[in-house]
Amino acid sequence: MEETYRPLYHEIFTKVNNAKDKPKKLAVLRKYKTSSLEMILKSAFDPKITWMVPEGEVPFMPNEAPDGTEHTILEQEVRKLHNFVQRETPSGPIVGNPDLNTMKREMMFVQLLEGLSQGEAEVVCLAKDQVLNKKYKGLTANLVKEAFGWDENFVEINNPGYGQQAPGRVDLGRTPQDMRDSRERPGH
Q: Bridge-partner residues for 87, per DSSP?
């Protein structure tokens, strides 16, 4: 039976968790692949991305509205993640939004979580602490890289547009120059 709606990210990751073998897990990720899904997975698994909000439990009021009702959707809100991360580069870290002070950044993070459903807020918190695979078994960096055809830098292998950003797309603090530099360094 064909789905009539797009599942929320925690529902997609539950499908990955429940898939019986690696080919089925890969098929789930590929079926739901979007740039937004890629961004949340990069934020969870790319070792060069560091979250700039404290690790551990976040003091926020969970949105108790049922999924699909009175809350924002992570697929749309993921474009705000650059506010909370920095990316390590050979020339030093690139902060996704250097204009935010720590208090403002943490306040915005809490607001993001409070707008999402409980399941999606949990996904963001697990991604932040880079433990998404602890809840969703089999959802690992290697599985994600294989599903999306990414190299060790979490970018598409043999992508002719590598280092060029689509208009309006944020790549978690990665600048076009940073992307070109990482591609030009063999073995990185």
A: 49, 94
Taking a C-beta distance cutoff of 8 angstroms, is the pair 82, 97 a contact? yes
Question: What's the pLDDT tens digit per position in 140-178?
Answer: 999 999 999 999 989 888 765 544 444 444 456 555 555
Give the count of beta carbons closer than 10 Å to the beta carbon of residue 14: 17
- In whole angstroms, give the CA distance from residue 187 to residue 183: 9
Name the percent of the chain lying above pLDDT 90: 69
pTM: 0.82
Residue 73 near residue 123 (C-beta atoms within 8 A) = no
Among 119, 46, 116, which residue's Cα sits nearest to residue 76? 116
Whole-number CA gyration radius for the chain: 16
